[in-house]
Amino acid sequence: MSHPDDFSDTDLSAWLDGELDAERRAQIDAWLREHPEVAARARLWAADGDAVRARFNSVLGEPVPAALVHEVWHTSAPPRWPLAQAAAAAGLLVAGALIGAGGMWQWQEPRASGTLAAGTSAGWVQRAALAHSVYVPEPRHAVEVKAQEEHLARWLTRRIDIPVKLFDLRDEGFELVGGRLLPDAAGKSAQLMYESLDASAPKQRVTVYLRKPDAAAPTAFSYRQLGELGQFYWVEAGAGYALVGALPKERLLALAQAIYKQQPVAMPAASAAAR
Fold this sequence. Notes:
Layout: H1 9-16, H2 22-34, H3 36-56, H4 66-73, H5 83-100, H6 123-135, E1 145-146, H7 152-160, E2 174-184, E3 187-196, E4 205-211, E5 222-226, E6 229-236, E7 239-245, H8 249-261, H9 270-274
């Protein structure tokens, strides 16, 4: 069996991209089975890449923006490449984003754009959304430990070093499916998954992402929309929470309030965030 040091992030990226020979791939497969935390991190890289593809694949078929055409044809130096090559260059920008997706989880430098980069103090909110996208569609292996197993809360509490409460959301129409341990930027995090109780409607799932926050993590109760996903997130009493789901904002807010009310203090800014 290969030693863990034999497998760098470059090896794992090649493994994800199917670039290894059969022997090397089998070695990494066996090693990842013995190192589930690294396997989870690699799965998140894959999810990151899928998210970038979902966001930018449609751009490859779009016409070249007029501003780019103008820039190419009206620079001080005569252009040496035709419009088709300008389109190819635009495509390379997207391809570069896809190639770099696997490394996003390792980048610790905050980005100047103000977005929630995965390595920043607020990047855990982005990781919560990506983890939701990875595991919610799973029909059989959505959670590591099912809700019926009594040790779920104790196990997650020990692993992420903050008290994990199994929130009761049945009054809001959701029941606990179970939970799992996830890698985090500087440690570990947990995900609890809930499923809708209404048997007459299509099943819906929401997730609660829990972590020990960084000292610089924003604490305000906040909301953001990511495509069809909505997300409420906040820090309270030494724990970070991110509730994620493809639900209307008002319904997701009701779930967030139910979660918060099961904590020691009442939610201070829910009404402001809902506006």
